[in-house]
Amino acid sequence: MFKFIKVLFLILTLVSLLYGREEKRSMLNILIITGGHDFEASFYEIFDSFEHIQYDTISQPEANQAMMFNQVGKYDVLVFYDMWQHITEQEKVGFLNLLEKGRGIVFLHHSLASYQNWAEYKNIIGGKYVLKESDDQVSAGSTYKHDLILHVKIADTTHAVTDGLKDFQIKDEGYKGIEILPSVQPLLTVSHTDCAEYVAWAHKYQNSKIVYILLGHDHHAYQEESYRKLIQNAIFWVAGKSI
Predict the structure, then answer these.
(1) Looking at the domain assignment, is residue 99 inside a domain?
(2) Which pTM value belongs to this model?
């Protein structure tokens, strides 16, 4: 009987250790970056709903300063929900250094309109929302429209970012007339006269995995389970982890 209890104790101890290691391995630290565009506070409820993800928040311009001084090293993933324009040459170097190190990045919604006059940003995120007051001479400007009913289709059912997702409907803001690099990998598409065809894509820049998700204007999107699943999958994929 004593031997049986001893063996059982060892088994339970081993299981506990393995479970603890799994928990530690699965937990991701992310930094959510905002600034330059208003948004509803319920945005953070998306991330509160995730298991194995803990987050901190920072706003611009402090975020660019933190990247410049290499103060974001503890984070596995940066999630950009900002729409910021001012960036110094030193801050650009800090940003690019993170990408060279392979830091995963998820860009959401209006972050596509950031850094209108930094040409390399388009290559980082995979596209550009062109503001009419920018220096861009190629396009007359992109457009947006609120409260569209978008029927979202999965463009790549084999990708980890779309794992577990099926076609879904969402009420959200659409962007039209945006620039999209031909090298990106489409993940989600829509067919709507007031929205670009691609509403999520993946690609790589230097050593970093990148995901951009056009969706996500307000609570209509925040509360959509498929949208939350999409963001969660994207975070784990750019981090090189599995859920």
Answers:
(1) yes
(2) 0.88
